[in-house]
Amino acid sequence: MSNSWNERLRLIRFRRKRERIRFRDELRIIPRWLIWICVIGWLISIAIACPINYYNVQHHGDYFPAPDMANQPLLASLALAGVITAGVLVLSCLLFILGYVYRDAKRRGMNPALWTLLVLLLSGPYVFIGLIVYLLIRDPLPYACPQCHATVSARFNFCPNCKCNLRPACPHCQHEIADTDKFCPYCAAELTPSKPQIPPATADSATNGEERKS
Ligand SMILES: [Zn+2]
Ligand SMILES: [Zn+2]
Question: Of 211, 214, 213, 202, which is closest to residue 158 (Cα–Cα)?
Answer without folding.
Answer: 211
